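Predict structure. Chain length: 487.
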Amino acid sequence: MAAEEPLLSADVAVVGAGAAGLYAALTAAEAGASVALVSATPLAQTASYWAQGGIAAALAVEDSAERHLADTEAAGRDAVRRSAAEVLVEEAPARVADLERLGVHFDGDRRGMLALGLEGGHSLRRVVHAGGSATGRRIVRQLSALAVDRPRIAVLEGARAASAWMCDGRCEGVLLEDGRAIRARATILATGGAAAMWSRTTNPPGSLGIGMTLAHAAGAELADLEFLQFHPTAVIGIAGREGFLVSEAIRGEGATLHGPDGERFVDELAPRDEVARTIAALLARSGASSVGLDMRAVDPARFPNVVAALSDAGLDPTRAPIPVSPAAHYMMGGIVTDLHGRSTVPGLFAIGETACTGLHGANRLASNSLSECFVFGARAAAAGLDEPDPGAPDATRPPAPAALVRPRRATQEALWRDAGIVRDREGLSRLLDDPHPLARLIAVCALQREESRGAHQRADFPDLDGALDHRHAVIGADARPRLARWR
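Prediction complete.
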């Protein structure tokens, strides 16, 4: 299948070449499928490349799937879809083993066993890392090299999806911005999250919810868009490193947070929503722009890429605390899918941060996101091969691609102001008139949830409403939200 052809054909089209997309593509190819892998950037330069966290999996002798499940549900604030969490905790160890089979080398301890890290919300050490905080880089590099080497995978670098190829209510492929089209029995969206829709973010500029926007335009349901996780420790005020995420694993190894008075003020390993909210409240009271992350008790050799990045910016974490404050980091919501990645549009799948299985509830447990990429990436690849063959590639000529709307700076600033760590009806209502469709949908979901839960904090509804436990704000093609109970 030549990448220059205007009309391509594959068993599976995977849009996005981060951890989820790469793993899904490799899984499908190993099953004998032909795969078209669409990557807006050169391979190994996706958002997953920068992931500093690891893979959460119950691998320790004293750990179990049940303990991992309990921690996931506790972090998710009574909004986790248990069936999705059960799939994750039960299948994550096998996915770690499979990554090792594929050549990913994880960090070991002195006994030759996998070294397990401790991160916020986990009751014991269960996070697997590769190269300390370079996990995303190591995994994406290895999987990218394998994808390029697989004859069944055609890699389309520098290609951007514009819209789904719809025929009689079914997705039969994807249309690219450059006019090319891919016809496939299954189209898997793995385009990442939407945290770059906010002006202060840890994410690369391309994390704009493109897959979510594309899927919704095709008629797919979205859910939980009000649940945007703010990472507590992103560098602030340093040119060239604004929003650089300092991994939670560093706090797991003993780094501490200090207010303007030099005193510790929070349990550094509490779930992220709690830590971010506490920092934001302290900054509001004190008028300070940052708190200090003291890494001086942490061995810098454990996190070489973080230390190197800070050093390049003129910061020496071995001598002084690093200025940090929260930044938009991870979208728990996304395209509604079942436990095999199927969206509500036949033939259209979603995995990774693009998808919403209900796994993360109102607050993602640290390092469950990479686990999700591999667990549900494998499931979607297998399910996609059960989809019907759309026929010969030239049986139906593709329509012209739609034009994707990208947010202006004003939209990003409006989301930070009106849908930030704490929001209210007045600010959210302003977003209903924003020119960007995803910004409007985020506001619709946030207005529907009249309570404070996890990453969604309403100043005008400060308490948690038990009647909304396990209810998810779902929004269909008609843009009318409903609160659905998921099991």
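Summary: The first strand starts at residue 7 and ends at 15.
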